[in-house]
Amino acid sequence: MTIIDLCEHDPMREIDLLHHIYGASTDLPSRVRLGPGDDMALLDLDDRRLLVAVDQVIEGRHYAPETTPIELVGRKAIMRSVSDVAAMAAVPIAALATAALPPNFGRERSERLFDAMRVAAAEADCPLIGGDIALLDDAGHPLVCTVTVLASPVGRAITRGGAVVGDAVYVTGALGGSVTGVEPAHHLTFQARIAEALDLAARLGDHLHAMIDISDGLGRDAAHIARASDASIEIDVDRIPARAGIPWRRAAGEGEDYELLFTAAGDVPATIGDEVPVTRVGRVIDHPGGDAPRVVMRDGERGEAGDELGWQHES
Fold this sequence. Notes:
Layout: H1 14-23, E1 32-34, E2 41-45, E3 48-58, H2 70-87, E4 90-101, H3 107-123, E5 128-135, E6 144-153, E7 168-172, H4 186-189, H5 194-204, E8 208-213, H6 218-229, E9 232-236, H7 248-253, E10 260-264, E11 271-272, E12 276-285, E13 295-299, E14 302-305
Parallel strand pairs: 4-5, 9-13
Antiparallel strand pairs: 1-2, 2-3, 3-6, 4-6, 7-10, 7-12, 8-10, 9-12, 11-12, 13-14
Helix pairs in contact: 2-3, 2-5
């Protein structure tokens, strides 16, 4: 079994549905400062602003049930959503979780799942304050855990849409092999980069222009920034900080790294937070009029489109 199962009938690309949602979400109330299309939505609530995001972990798609302890499933469910908070350089407030439990999941496993989510949420200073449980009848239905997270922006929220032509492009940590390349699997044990994002925002101030967390892969997540910013991005493949033994295509395309990808002007520190390395991997460039923003992977003198390097959920 693979982490992502692709059905052969009537395939639908995730990105196509997302673009439909974005296009249908342009006429939102004025209190919605930032709607669908970024890592979190931003709301104006009287005298304060609130960031909100939701994400899910599905058995067989986001983890292999045969080899993954239920405690790591609960942890990943929390940290995936908290990673969105890091992408906005914000501070977590609280989380709510739902679980759709297959038949015969059992009370003992259910309690271990909940306890793992509670512990991970406390670790992220994002206490679990509520949610919902559904007990399913369909024996073939996978476990689904959904986590909604609330956060508070520190100053301005860092979005995907602020990249400026001339910016340098950076990533934190190491990329590639997050699902199968290291033990224990990084995608189950990663720490959301909250402290690093806040450190980065404090040091760079207005010079930090755009940011996203790398869940879909460097190529595809760079494309999210490029489209939101109406600019193209060029990546030097020799600069990608791939894990040992991981070729650049895997490092750029596998996803599930949960590192920060950002664009900035001026001097950027070599390490942030608890000595997490920062690597310059490319630059933001203009794109010819009439052409769509692109990500170009440059290997020496040869360049190729990198937008499709990354996870693409289909059904």
